[in-house]
Structure formats: C-alpha cells, structure tokens
Design a protein that fits this description.
By secondary structure, this protein is an all-alpha fold. About 80% of the residues lie in helices and about 0% in strands. The radius of gyration is 21 Å and the shape is globular. About 45% of the residues are buried. Pfam families: Na_H_Exchanger. Belongs to the monovalent cation:proton antiporter 1 (CPA1) transporter (TC 2.A.36) family. It is found in: Cell membrane.
Length: about 400
C-alpha cells in the first residue's frame, strides 16, 4: 500500500469515527478514536482468521509506516506547539513552581518507582528481566501525555489553577520524560560506557538545549510576525518555525519537544499582546486548532490499530494492567513527595493531587517510545504492557474524570 493510500485510509476512518462520536457517543474525541481504532484492529484480526494473510498484510503495512517515527519524528512537533499556543503565561506564573517540580523531580521519581515496581512484578510473574530495561519502561510510562491530557481538558470544568497545572505539567514533563528515556537508552546500549558526568552532560544538553532553542525560535518567530499583517504569511511562518525548528533540534541533539513547547508559549502569548492584529490572531488560532484536531484524530485511530502490531498476548497485557494500577499509585506518590518537600500545597486548591493523579493520562508518546525499543531491550514484553497501560488510562481514567470531579465537588 502506498503512503498516500495508507494516510487516506487513516483519515477516512478518523472522519467516520469523528462523525459517530459527534452524532451518537459524545465522549472525549481522543479516547473514542482510540477505542474505535481498537475495535477496527480486532475486526482486522478476526477477518484474518477467515482470510489467511489479511491481518499479516495489514500488520506489514503498519510496521512499514513506523508509528514511532510518525509521532516522534514529525506529528509531535505540531501537537505540542498547538497545545502550548493556548496556554496563558499569566496562569503559568501563578503555579510555575509546582509545574517545574512535577515535570522534573516528579518524572525522575516516577521513573524509578515504576521501574522498580515492574522489576518486582515481572519476577513475581515468572518472567524476570534486568533492572535497566524495567527502568526504561518506567521512563516511557512516567510522563503524562499532553496530547491525551489537553484533549480531556476541553471537556471538563476544572479550577483554573488545577487546569493550568495539568496542562503545563503534561507539556513539560513530556519533553523531560523523553530526555530521561533517551539518557537511559544511551546507558542501556550495548558497548556504551557512560559515566555520571557524561549522563549529566547529556541531560543538560537535551533539556537545557531544548529550552534555549525554543526560546530562540519563539523570539525569531515573534520578530518576523510583528513586522507584517498578513495572516496567510504568518500561518506559513509558524509552520516553518515548527517543522524547521524541530528538524534543527534533531540535528543539534537537543530536545525538540521542549523547544516546541517554549516556542508555542512565546508565540501564543505575544500574539495576544502586541504582535498581530485581531483578524490575524483569529485565523492563526483557528488554523492551529483545526490542524490539532485532524492530527489528533489520525494519531489516536492509528494508536488503536497498533493492536494488530502488538498482538493479543493475554499474559503481557495482563501484566500491563497491573502496571497501569502501579503507575497510577506511583503518580500520586511522585506528585505528593515534591509537594511536601517544597511546600507547594499552599498554592494549590484542595484535592489537586487526586485530580492531577487521575487526570494524568498516558498516550501515544509512551506507545511510540515502546515501539522504538531495540530488540535487546525486550520490546516483545514492554510493547503489549505499554498498550495495556495506555488503554487503561484512556478507558478507566479518561472516561471517569468528569464523574471524579463531580464526586469531589460534592465532597
């Protein structure tokens, strides 16, 4: 199947699922796209039982398309920029300490605890693995997915401070989580002999370099946009900033996700204050909102279809559900520890940790990182486990977040 035909099939499914959700289901779009994608994948596997070779052909097409490269190499840049474009700097300033703590210390703590818990879980299940691959699994599960989280926020009525914490943390901990994963992957690569100094330098290069690159890209985009008032050109400039900037970050070996978040924050906030006219701002925001919706639809459908690649392994999918419960408990601990250590509870509304824990969804980034694991690091174990965690996160957490908020408000 050609690339155009494959993308056409994905977009057709996304359009059909979007209609079904808007017309009948009326649930958070990303979650419904994922679930309907899973249903479609199960249909492919069922037809494959009747028509030999059909499921194998679909699987070969999905493997050839490369979900990891599709998300991490291109689509993620657009989604992070679009998500950060709507986050207000004033709101971030009010809770910046908690966002910084949760997206760094919280991610490191969650990585270690999930990794250790998974190590013990696999030993108890009679499928023991070394600690380092388990820590890699912890790193890809630890950060919440901004794509999933921001989609949920559109359908809920949260306290502004909690909403800003959830959105801001998910945007930044995604970038930092990828940095931690890349660092652990470097350590786990056969033949490498990293030292504490080289690991620290890699973290500094990826995270610090990504933040600096994002600030530079955002400032450059702001200066260019400020000198004209032509919305078509300004849309093209933002597209060039995202695509060219993400490619540049990749070439410089700095964090592209962090760079896109910072650039989006700068462009989004200065465009409201001084850089563009009201007409241009309206077109710019609507363009990125529409692009965000289309890419999200395609991405979540593709995530569901990845069940064809993952395969149905009851043993590892069951372990994944246990890991999902573990990750949820660890999420609360990883938020509570920095909150207590840094005295953050004074700036947070009541029940913030419960809402942040339950609303911290896992999504495409976790699955993409798992699918990109080299054979020596046991993707046959961690891919189905990650898929189960993502599915649990979407169905159990995502579909019940509104009910949790209602219950907490009554309490």
């Amino acid at each position: 199947m050609s690339l155009f035909s494959f993308l056409a099939a994905l977009l057709t499914l996304a359009g059909l699922f979007s209609y079904l959700n808007a017309r009948f289901l009326r649930q958070p779009a990303g979650i419904m796209f994922l679930l309907l994608g899973v249903v479609a994948a199960m249909g492919v596997l069922a037809v494959g039982q009747v028509v030999p070779g059909f499921a194998a052909q679909v699987k070969a097409t999905l493997v050839q398309f490369d979900f990891t490269e599709f998300l991490m190499g291109s689509v993620l840049s657009f989604l992070l920029f679009a998500g950060s474009l709507h986050v207000r700097a004033e709101a971030l300033k009010a809770v910046w300490r908690s966002i910084a703590a949760y997206s760094t210390l919280g991610v490191l703590l969650a990585t270690g605890l999930v990794g250790l818990g998974t190590y013990c879980l696999l030993h108890l299940a009679g499928a023991p693995l070394a600690l380092l691959p388990c820590l890699l699994f912890g790193a890809l599960i630890a950060p919440t997915d901004p794509i999933a989280v921001l989609g949920i926020l559109k359908t809920t009525d949260l306290d502004p401070k909690i909403e800003t914490n959830l959105a801001g943390e998910s945007l930044f901990n995604d970038g930092f989580g990828v940095v931690v994963f890349v660092t652990l992957l470097e350590i786990a690569t056969p033949g490498s002999a990293p030292t504490a100094g080289s690991v620290g330098l890699l973290l500094l290069q990826e995270a610090g370099g990504g933040l600096l690159a994002g600030a530079a890209l955002g400032y450059l985009g702001y200066r260019l946009i400020k000198t004209i008032d032509h919305f078509q050109t300004e849309v093209i400039l933002t597209l060039a900033l995202v695509m060219g900037g993400y490619a540049l970050c990749h070439a410089l070996h700095v964090s592209g996700p962090l760079a896109m978040v910072v650039a989006g924050l700068i462009i989004g906030n200065v465009s409201r204050s001084e850089a563009v006219s009201d007409t241009t701002r309206d077109y710019l925001e609507k363009f990125w909102e529409a692009l965000d919706e289309v890419l999200n639809a395609v991405l979540f459908v593709l995530m569901g279809l990845e069940l064809v690649v993952v395969g149905f392994s009851p043993f590892y999918l069951g372990l994944g559900l246990a890991a999902a419960v573990l990750a949820l408990l660890v999420r609360y601990v990883a938020l509570a520890v920095p909150t207590r250590l840094l005295g953050l509870s004074k700036q947070l509304p009541a029940r913030t940790l419960a809402i942040l824990s339950w609303g911290g969804l896992r999504g495409g980034i976790s699955l993409a990182l798992a699918l990109g694991l080299p054979p020596a690091l046991h993707p046959e174990v961690f891919v189905p486990m990650t898929f189960a965690v993502v599915l649990f996160s979407a169905v159990v957490q995502g579909l019940t977040l509104k009910q949790l908020l209602s219950w907490l408000n009554r309490g």
